[in-house]
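Researcher: Here's the sequence for the chain we discussed earlier.
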Amino acid sequence: MTVRGRVWINTAALLAAVTIAVLSLTFPTFSAAYAGYTMRRLPIYSVDTPEKAIALTFDAAWGADKTEKILEILNANGIKATFFLVGFWIDKYIDEVKMLDNAGIEIGNHTENHPDMAKLTAEQMKKELLSVNDKLKAATGKDTRFFRPPFGSYNDRLIGVSAELGLTVIQWDVDSLDWKDTRTSSIVDRVSKKVRNGSIILFHNNSDCVTDAIGILIPKLLREGYRFVTVGELVRTENYRIDHTGRQFAA
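Model: Thanks. This is the structure I predict for it:
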């Protein structure tokens, strides 16, 4: 390769890097996947913070018989959490929705029908999200700020549609795996080992041993100095950037 060729390639690479840096500053919700200089939009998986603040979240799609007990455990420990609700769950358990709201629980959108959102068109995505937004507004009188995609499945289109509807997409960095693990001790151990400052923890409201697990886990993490907050209290809504792992940083 000639000297001129090497200079041209190095210049092109430098320009690409500068372009990524400028776009990251201009559009803080964009994160660069540096391989191939491909730009990706990412949800928030965790938050960079010096405080030992963490968010406990529950996805609710099937069943509700453990919801009241979950609230009792949260109240007994003086903490709040965030629930992400599916539309057909709202229809079936409207009293529980109002109970959650009255208890000061933050409620987010988990789609109308629990589909793989990455497989839908933009219009189908909007329909799934707007339906739940409307139902929650009718039930609680509050606007919905956060959305969690079923199965954690997303693409750039979904992130863009969510932003257009005023929804911030929330994932998790600590998965309890309570939906398939029926051993309370292993769930507690798994979460305890992975949790860190700014973690977002995933549970499900009707898994087999969710109440047993959080009944042990919450006091344990409180003793370790962690402070439980809602997703809305944890994440930044402006002047931020997201790295390639989905961790949110102050810009």
